């Protein structure tokens, strides 16, 4: 049985991120949430014109460098330049142009005086404060960005600010990685789909939903293949189909030591290599990780297979701990795919058996002194899905430790 850290290292090592052949060009809105695949260069300097950073007056520094409240520089206003208009005149000595934030600077002017430091008399303006240097409150062309230099580095997820940056630089065709495809199926003779009538001994396949949504949240396209019976032939067909349909396959159930747990046997039948069979984690001990070479495409990276335990809590905990980082790494993110832990003060006593690294679910709350962890009330059995609702953090009790007292600090995995 592997330690959690060992299993994590093996999983992440098996992941070969998407590459050149997985790039598609999308327009700006469609690219949101995707991972940038190559550097993008903008077509425009930013700002694209010298412009004013203030509402005020565009002046020659020479005219105003000695101005003060008792001895104002008096300038004649020759033009008003609203945002979006091209100035028509050149500012001469003794002259100023009325200007607004974002308006283009007129020729002849090198400095902007903010409105609050002036007094207006008809078409004259009195400058009451000398600017510290020429260029004050002028945003110069190319000051923030020069056209055709790299704007964003590859491997980052494109969020609102990134898309805005690309838009402002007229970089409207964005090379991004396609979303990894993740095929999901549930094994178990006892399972019925949500909304279907439930017979004696049956239960609803909730894992299908949990995984489809969690995989989508990790940036993937989920392909749901439904419920598969505990029958070797049926299972083998389903696994084969799943491997053909996706980059990664996630199944649940059938990985324990019971009579009907066939997943590992079928993996080997289909030519897969098993790298992990169990991990010292609670919940989630029976975790199977395998790879399948792509026979038709020998240079292509092998497909990844995760056989997660069937208990609904074990399914999600092992997904959050091992699968989500792997999917994010696969998607082309160059950083930030690792699981995110924060130290938090636990509000309740945390108790475990001490044999395996234990994940207790609950909520994480901000407080003036840092994060606090609130343990979910009720049973922390891996079969109890119900109190997993609204989970935002998993408190981690290390191997060998049996309790963490209320008020002490615990490491919490954010989910
Ligand atoms: P297994 O790992 O197949 O032995 O299943 C362990 C437990 O999880 C059993 O009680 C199953 O009924 C339950 N279970 C298995 N698969 C699912 C599923 N897809 N949705 C909800 N519960 C499941
Ligand atoms: Mg089963």
Describe this structure in words.
- The chain folds into four domains: 4-18 and 178-330, MoaB/Mog-like domain (Molybdenum Cofactor Biosythetic Enzyme, Chain A), CATH 3.40.980; 21-46 and 143-177, Molybdopterin biosynthesis moea protein, domain 2; 51-139, Beta Complex (Molybdopterin biosynthesis moeA protein, domain 3); 341-414, Beta-clip, CATH 2.40.340.10.
- The protein is 19% helix and 31% strand.
- It has helices at residues 4-14, 28-31, 61-64, 160-168, 207-217, 232-245, 263-269, 312-330, and strands spanning 23-27, 40-41, 51-52, 56-59, 73-81, 95-99, 111-114, 118-121, 124-127, 138-139, 150-152, 173-177, 181-187, 191-192, 203-204, 221-228, 248-252, 273-276, 281-282, 288-292, 303-308, 341-346, 350-351, 357-367, 370-375, 393-397, 403-404, 409-414.
- A six-stranded mixed sheet has the order 7-4-6-5-9-8. The protein has a six-stranded mixed sheet with strand order 16-13-17-21-20-18, sandwiched between helices. A five-stranded mixed beta barrel has the order 22-25-24-26-28.
- The mean pLDDT is 96.
Summarize the entry for a quick read:
With 415 residues, the protein is α/β, with parallel strands linked by helices. The chain contains eight helices and 28 strands.
């Amino acid at each position: 049985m592997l330690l959690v850290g060992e299993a994590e290292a093996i999983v992440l090592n098996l992941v070969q991120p998407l590459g050149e052949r997985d790039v598609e060009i999308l327009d700006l809105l469609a690219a949101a949430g995707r991972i940038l695949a190559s550097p993008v260069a903008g077509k425009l300097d930013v700002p694209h014109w010298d412009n004013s950073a203030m509402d005020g007056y565009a002046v020659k520094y020479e005219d105003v460098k000695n101005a003060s409240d008792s001895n104002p520089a008096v300038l004649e206003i020759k033009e008003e330049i609203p945002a979006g208009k091209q100035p028509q005149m050149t500012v001469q000595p003794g002259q100023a142009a009325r200007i607004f934030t974002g308006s283009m600077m007129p020729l002849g002017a090198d400095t902007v005086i903010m409105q609050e430091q002036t007094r207006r008399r008809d078409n004259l303006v009195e400058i009451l404060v000398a600017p510290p240097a020429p260029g004050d409150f002028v945003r110069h062309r190319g000051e923030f960005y020069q056209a055709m230099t790299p704007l964003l580095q590859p491997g980052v997820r494109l969020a609102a600010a990134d898309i805005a940056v690309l838009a402002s630089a007229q970089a409207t065709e964005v090379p991004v990685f396609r979303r990894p495809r993740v095929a999901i199926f549930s094994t178990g003779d006892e399972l019925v789909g949500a909304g279907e009538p439930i017979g004696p001994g049956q239960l609803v396949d909730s894992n299908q939903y949990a995984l489809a949504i969690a995989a989508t949240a990790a940036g993937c396209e989920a392909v749901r293949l439904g419920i598969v019976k505990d029958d070797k032939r049926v299972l083998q067909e389903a696994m084969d189909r799943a491997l053909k349909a996706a980059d990664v396959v996630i199944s649940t159930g059938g990985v324990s030591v019971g009579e009907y747990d066939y997943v590992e046997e079928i993996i080997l039948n289909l030519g897969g290599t098993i790298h992990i069979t169990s991990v010292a984690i609670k919940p989630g001990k029976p975790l199977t990780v395998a790879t399948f070479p792509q026979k038709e495409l020998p240079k292509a990276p092998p497909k990844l297979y995760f056989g997660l335990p069937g208990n609904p809590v074990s399914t999600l905990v092992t997904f959050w701990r091992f699968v989500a980082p792997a999917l994010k790494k696969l998607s082309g993110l160059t950083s930030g795919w690792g699981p995110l832990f924060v130290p938090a003060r636990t509000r309740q006593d945390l108790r475990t058996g001490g044999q395996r690294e234990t994940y207790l679910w609950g909520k994480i709350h901000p407080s003036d002194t840092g994060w606090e962890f609130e343990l979910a009330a009720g049973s922390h059995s891996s079969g109890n899905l119900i109190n997993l609702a609204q989970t935002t953090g998993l408190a981690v009790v290390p191997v060998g430790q049996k309790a963490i007292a209320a008020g002490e600090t615990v490491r919490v995995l954010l989910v």
